[in-house]
Write a structure and sequence with these properties.
By secondary structure, the chain is of the alpha+beta class. Helices cover 40% and strands 22% of the residues. It is built from six helices and eight strands. An eight-stranded mixed sheet has the order 1-7-6-5-2-3-4-8, sandwiched between helices. Helix 1 (6-19) crosses helix 2 (30-43) and helix 2 (30-43) packs parallel to helix 3. It is globular, with a radius of gyration of 15 Å.
């Protein structure tokens, strides 16, 4: 069995953003999920996420193994840097209200980011979210669509304008059924 090369996978993702060509990259596990989100944070300024629990930005996502635990700091640092970008915004639709004590940025309060509108959280009724695959859109450039929530397998598609437009339309539809979370 071939071992997963995190650095090589991250470089492949970063190159996909820079090359500006249509490309599909498969995600096989939580490490891939963390790498995709890391790359999106580093390369983009607007991220739209439909994810029931904001998993990749929560502490418990990284507890499974030592390799995954070592990725948490990189994702956390990239998330902090993302929020420092002048016009950055993370818009997330969840079906469970996130708690500040489970957020991977310990020195930044989730409610402060909400108040500054760096992150906008929407709560969608669970009955709507139940069978909907998780997906993330980054700067109209990349889309990550999960095939299996528990395994965190997904496809990450770069520079497919039709797919991106459809995902944005779906995101806006789900947002219309959601209510803004205030802390």
């Amino acid at each position: 069995m071939e071992t997963f090369d995190w650095e090589k996978y991250c470089q492949k993702l970063n190159n996909a953003f820079k090359n500006k060509k249509k490309l599909v990259i498969q995600n096989d596990n939580k490490e891939c999920d963390a790498a995709v989100n890391l790359s999106m944070l580093e390369n983009c300024s607007h991220i739209f996420m439909f994810c029931r629990r904001m998993s990749v930005f929560r502490d418990d996502f990284y507890k499974d193994n030592e390799d995954l635990k070592s990725r948490k700091e990189k994702v956390s640092n990239s998330l902090a840097n993302f929020f420092r970008k002048e016009n950055s915004r993370l818009i997330v639709i969840v079906s469970e209200k996130p708690q500040s004590n489970d957020f991977i940025l310990k020195d930044v309060q989730l409610k402060d980011l909400v108040r500054k509108r760096k992150i906008m959280l929407y709560l969608i009724p669970k009955q709507i979210a139940t069978d909907t695959p998780h997906f993330t859109i980054a700067d109209d450039v990349a889309v990550r669509v999960e095939n299996n929530d528990s395994e965190k397998t997904a496809s990450c598609i770069f520079y497919d304008s039709n797919l991106t437009a459809n995902c944005i339309n779906s995101f806006e539809l789900f947002r219309s059924y959601s209510s803004l979370i205030n802390y």
